[in-house]
Amino acid sequence: MKSKNTRQQRGVAVITALLLTTLAITIVASLFWQQQVQVRSIENQRMQLQKKWILRGAIDWARLILREDGKQSANVDHLGEPWAVKLADTRLDQYVENAKTENEDSDATLSGQVVDAQGMYNLNNLATDGNVDAREVAVFSRLLVNLRFDGQLAEAVADMVARTQTRAIAAPGSSSAETGAGKSTSDFSQPEVQFLRFTQVDDLLAINGFTPEMMERLKGFVTVLPGKTSINVNTTFAEVLAARIDGLSVGDAAAMIASRDRAYFRTVAEFKSRFEDRLKTLTDKDVDVATKYFIVNGKVKMNRSALDVSALIERADNIGSTAMTTTVLWVREN
Q: What domains are defined for the chain?
């Protein structure tokens, strides 16, 4: 009887030991798994931070190039300048540490491009101080048609842009001229419902008729810049130029761009002189040969992840001055 009890106790002890061993292994495995998750999380955070610093350096480099370009090329910007050269995938083996051994190559690459933002149509041209500009509505309508979209959407966009702006109202009993004291007689008021200002092309999705597929197409021809801007004829596209100049076909605009690619326009007067017969409706504010706003697109790939950002850079008007400055207005992840 005693021997039987002893065997039972031994069996219970063995089972208990096995259960404790299994529990210990489970706890240790869980700890290792949690540690691995923490290590991977820290690694991802480090890689993300590295990518952000690389792109920040790329944006600063682009600002330097634009600043030096402004000092040296006077009042003209064209696609033959250094800022317009696209940066293909460039390996960063010598500059980025990403947990590779000495005998392994880094997978980090950087690519990017500086784009003339004034080569595209600026949606903020559609309204000023809360008032729709009918002439600009016609321009945007022609651009939509050139891109094979519904031109009637231009009116809805203009109305939305106007509603996001502060409205200018003339003071009662006064003219729009300035007073003798040098102050304007106009006042400014907020609309009853204040809409968020247009800041990016994707904001068009708030308007019925626009789709994500349309956004992908529009982003190459439309942008949103602070205030009204002219089109740079040295960097714009045939569809935008044809929309900007009433009566100009896309084919004629393409011929102008072909001429520009052979010899860029040094002044607006030179642009007009080359195609005087086709520019009867052109005004001095419609086009320019210099640019104030640039978009920097950059992408960093590192091992299994990537970071793609865009930044809007404003270059000061004092082109040619040693005090030339560039300012980053915003940076967005794409």
A: 52-120+221-229+292-334 (3.30.1300.30), 122-220+233-287 (no CATH)
